[in-house]
Amino acid sequence: MKKKRRINKKKFLSRIVLLFIILFLIIFSLNRIFSNKKEDNHTLSLIVNKQDITKDLSYDIYIDKNKTLYMSMEDIKKVFDKNLYYENESNKIITTSKTKVGAINIDNNTVNINSATLELTSGVIDYGYTIYLPVSELTSIYNIEVTTDENSSVVSSLYEELVTVKTTKKVSLKQKTSVFSSTVQKLNEGTELIFIEDSDKNGWIKVLTYEGNFGYIKEKNLSEKKVKRSKMEETDFTSKMPDIENSIEIGKNTITSEKIDKFSDREKIVEDIIGQVISKEKFTVNINLKDIDVPKEKMERFIIELIARLKEIGGSVIVTNNNILDSEFIKEFNLEI
Question: pTM here?
Fold first, then answer.
């Protein structure tokens, strides 16, 4: 009888131990799941120039019912324009690219691009106490192409090369280079895909769908590669070298703290300079900083906006007698002869 009790007791203890092991495994698994969610808590994905940058974003992207891509100002600074800023006096958001200056008027849902005013179908919004801009409406500023669906957005720079392929039959997009790998997406014949790279594993090609899914397809199931857009080099924007001997000089009579304080005032000065450049056919603008007393931040804003406008017509900016700007800024924008 005692022996039987000992056996039952051992069985009971074994079951308790097994139960604890099972509970530990469950807790461990749940912890792994929730830990992964914390690492990437974005609900929508963003692909920019063939790279999934979703995890690098500070905030989720937002896609409205019209499939307009919205991004927070903070993330736009990371991805498109680190010099983006809000001008409190005019309630405008100012952004620049290589050849464009855009001023988004929050009050009336318009955007001024290189002095041309356009209406915005989708305006600036406050989404979760964060200011979001309609990136799909700013494609002409950033020179990008945007494709969106319910779960993701694919953004391509029009400066970068775009190579595409098409499926030649119904095929599965695989997560890895194996027929036994899980299927990411089912694709119909004739589906256009963005080519990413050749894989060295048994003829697999890495591609990107316009829905934002990366995966692999056998090369035999794809058409030949087609260059849909060639890469545009920096020299395509500024073809003329700076020429100080044949330049237009801008100095203390043009640039004062009051005259470049607001975007609208800076825009008038820039327009006047552009007019001189075109009429005199002198494509170098020399900003002579001698005896100019202007805060560094204001001068930087003025120069950034002037450079973008001049690049559009093949012009350039140089700075002489500098006593305001940091050497890093001078180097970044190539302002020295």
Answer: 0.80
Contact status, residue 208 vs residue 222, Cβ threshold 8 Å: no
- Domain end among 135, 154, 173: 154
Range of the domain at 71: 45-154
Yes or no: say if 315 and 238 are a contact pair by the CB < 8 Å rule: yes
The answer to whether residue 177 sits within a structural domain is yes
Distance from C-alpha of 175 to C-alpha of 51, rounded to nearest angstrom: 16
Q: What is the pLDDT of residue 13?
A: 65
Interval 189-194 mean pLDDT: 96
Compute CA 16 distance to the chain's CA centroid, rounded to the nearest angstrom: 55
Query: Same structural domain for residues 50 and 150?
Result: yes
Tell me how many domains the chain contains. 3
Q: Is residue 34 in some structural domain?
A: no
Asked whether the CA dihedral 285, 288, 289, 291 is positive or negative, the reply is negative
Q: pLDDT per residue over 237-248, tens digit each?
A: 555 678 888 999
